[in-house]
Amino acid sequence: xxxxxxxxxVSMTTTLYQSPxxxxxPCSIESESQILATAQALAKIPEVKMLRGGIWKPRxxxxxxxxxxxxGLAWLREAKRETGLPVATEVATPEHVELALKYDVDxxxxxxxxxxxPFSVQQLADALKGVDVPVFIKNPVSPDLNLxxxxxxxxxxxxxxxxxxxxxxFSYYKESPYRNFPMWEIPIELTRRLNVPVITxxxxxxxNRDLLQATAQKALDLATDGLMIECHxxxxxxxxxxxxxxxxxxLKTLLANLTFRxxxxxxxxxxLAELRGEIDEIDAELLQLLARRMEVSAQIGEYKKRNNVTVxxxxxxxxxxxxxxxxxxxxxxxxxLINKVFEAIHQASIERQGRILGEETNSH
Length: 364
Ligand code: PEP
Ligand code: MN
Description:
There is one protein chain. By secondary structure, the protein is an alpha/beta fold. It has 14 helices and eight strands. The protein has an eight-stranded parallel barrel, surrounded by five helices. β6, α8 and β7 form a beta-alpha-beta unit. The two termini are about 60 Å apart. Mean pLDDT is about 90; it is low at about 1-15. Phosphoenolpyruvate binds near residues 27, 58 and 112.
């Protein structure tokens, strides 16, 4: 649910209220041409509402690619100018915050490795005091709901109003097909307690391309408010997270294969209730008609008994059925349905007449 958290905002309203918020872009911004080409391709996908790109990369081991820093911010700003997409990046220190805002980044996210450290989170919250920018808080790497909630509380206390959660899965001690185990119950409980929107980062949950589609669908089925998906113009050449990134073209296919479900009752349920009411009335009429038909059929039975006529008049029955099938076809009803319904009715009818004539008749 998109919540009151977002109702005060002005600049981002249209973007963030279009649930689900689809946020896509490379794990890392590597070069000007890479981010511009990726952004341009993504901007052609109508569902994509925001461009992501990592500028400072928290790496597990030293000597790995750690992001382009400030020069990457200039490229990200250019991508925003060329495509009109709002942009988001990860910040881990007050210096990152200052630079990101200097380069007009529209939304900031706090990474899973940063959220585990309350000192870092507090420094970021202090740096954002009085700044009206949306902040997305990823879950900490460990499945610790209180730690995640604590981060929200620190930003809320600092007066940051536009807050959302990003669910990116959790480190897990057991073998699993996921890079980060989803533990869906944790973000669900977070929403229950804090009433914040949750965006599902399927890329960091899955860690590989194969699981993305099913995980995206699962997130939507569980009423996520958005999806974060890592996209790279040449995934195989990506400097970080190469295994989980997809091309913008693949993203298009993934989105086209998703079933977006209505989340809140609202008008959908009202319309459904109305239609169900209509069906109930029609069924009641059908029952009345069936009862009347059986009544007339019984009178015919009495007549046949008095006049010594057999119950089954095969020629008449064949003719009637053929006529009903033809009329049904004109009404858009399938011959299978008409045959089934009228055979059942006819069967019940001849059984009733058979009882009246004092003989059991089961065949036509
Ligand atoms: C990322 O989004 O590229 C990233 C580093 O994610 P996380 O903080 O979830 O590991
Ligand atoms: Mn990544």
